[in-house]
Amino acid sequence: MRTLLSVDDAMRDFRDKLRSLGQLDNTLVLYTSDHGLLWADHGWLRKSVPYRPSLEVPFYLSWPGGGLGAARTDDRLTAHVDIAPTLLDAAGITPDTPHDGHSLLGTGDRDHVLAEWWWNRQDKQPIHSWATYIGKAELYTEYYDLHLDRQGRLPGGVNGGEVLFREYYDLRTDPYQLTNKLHGASAEQERRLGVPELARRLTAARTT
Q1: pTM above 0.70?
Q2: Closest by Cα among 117, 137, 134 to 126
Q3: What are the start-end ranges of the H helices in 46-145?
Q4: Which domains does the chain have, with CATH numbers?
């Protein structure tokens, strides 16, 4: 917490300088962070696991001159790939090539976010490679027998590797991901949960 004081000081100085130049209201300020450690949440200390405390990061925008001066919460699904399109949009620049993300200054939204992690052989305590489909109200994860080779490539491609384990969480009723609804579930129960469709969507997201 003491080291964060220097960050607070830097942000104060930054805002004071913009204010002295008369540019504070007309500057788009974006705050975000790296993903944090879990500190024993779900029994993990690290952050390379598909649980919300590891996947989600703080994200704040301020730009009074652009209509972002009043406090409000936006519940759209976003990812770091949306940062560059947002800044380009604010500057009135149309990129020469398409982006994976979209500007958050408009009304565009997405119905899911894809997150992936691959075992890279450097971890003393290996975590199986995984991919997760994060929807508005659900999170579906597959763990794979898959790792990066010494050249950082995926043997067998993105969709290679046997599925070892799966998790499904209803984020509306279980926001802390405490009950994996696939544990002991029958094929019929999985169908009612929509898991086959989520598995299809996850595979499609990983290959596009």
Answers
A1: yes
A2: 117
A3: 52-55, 83-90
A4: 1-32+63-110 (no CATH), 111-208 (3.30.1120)
Measured CA to CA in angstroms, residue 24 lies from 36, 92, 179 at distances of 29, 19, 46
Answer yes or no: are the C-beta atoms of 44 and 70 closer than 8 Å.
Answer: no
Strands, E assignment, 39-151: 59-62, 112-117, 129-135, 138-144
Helix (H) or strand (E) holding 57: none
The pLDDT confidence band at residue 121, using thresholds 50, 70 and 90, is low
The Cα 155–Cα 149 span in angstroms is 7
For residues 66 and 54, give the distance between their C-alpha atoms in angstroms, rounded to a whole number.
31
Selection from 56, 73, 61 nearest residue 31 by Cα: 61
Q: From CA 52, how far away is CA 38, in angstroms rounded?
A: 9
pLDDT digits (tens, 9 = 90+) for 67-77: 998 999 999 99
Q: Which two tokens stand for residue 63?
A: 């730009």
| Strand partners of residue 188 | none
Task: Tell me the two tokens of residue 43.
Answer: 């029994």
